[in-house]
User: What shape does this take?
Amino acid sequence: DRQSENIKQFLTSVGFKIIRLEAQLKNGDWSNMAVRCQK
Assistant: This one.
């Protein structure tokens, strides 16, 4: 039904965001941000 389709799309978009965050972590973006915040 339509509701389960919406839930699937929502979970998919959330999954992509998490994958992107993990990629940024691996690339060291977060450590760079932490260094900037400490200064």
Notes: Residues 2-27 form the longest helix (26 residues). The chain has one domain: 2-38. Residues 6 and 12 are 10 Å apart (CA to CA).
